[in-house]
């Protein structure tokens, strides 16, 4: 059973994991270095726990203690009960969800492990330059909902375990396996060697429309999407086996990358009508 500890001092060193959550640059450096991430809200905390992440500590507003009682009783990590005012002074913002948990990271799998899994109909996604945490979280959520088996990230992609990405994904970052490719875009050749057809999403008129691509081309495919605004780099496009695009209404050339990922994942699903 966890210890329930009331804390009145926002400078209490026991709350260090939760300090300065709005300082993006600080958290980007500190969280991976210290092997932690922050889960926010009851559902996300429960999903992190159910995914096997170890809890370091929890910060709760008093009214959330009863809601999280089963978690408190189950886990040995300390639980700090604070007023909303103290929580805001510690974190730097109004914690309207009332519950935060500091969780221990797990080692990331190697890309080879991701690529070796699954059968012939398996689909994965490859993200290049996803630096916006909200877009990354939304794309993970779409991947989980639409049957994407795993995600590979270019070295410059944002951290899927950053608080904003986790929250937008509704915890889907815990359920979709992911790994980082160290040598970009050269490591795309390893994707192809593993038997995946690399489909580059691009609005280029040279790309084939998704609704006209034969369904068999989506079997064991890697759907590659680029950053918001810039799209896929020239190097990534050259490394692809095929370019594909979402058919658009006249005068509109693209979608937000998170929305585009959802459309692509839906259009390439195995149940797509011929």
From TrEMBL:
| Record's keyword annotation contains rRNA processing | no
- Keyword vocabulary terms for this entry: Methyltransferase, Transferase
Domain tRNA/rRNA methyltransferase SpoU type: residue ranges: 125-266
Task: Give the Gene Ontology MF terms in alphabetical order.
Answer: methyltransferase activity
Q: Which domain of life is it from?
A: Bacteria
| Record has Methyltransferase as a keyword | yes
Q: What's a GO biological-process term for it?
A: methylation
Supply the CDD domains for this chain: SpoU-like_rRNA-MTase
Q: What is this protein called?
A: TrmH family RNA methyltransferase
Species name for this entry? Streptomyces toxytricini (Actinomyces toxytricini)
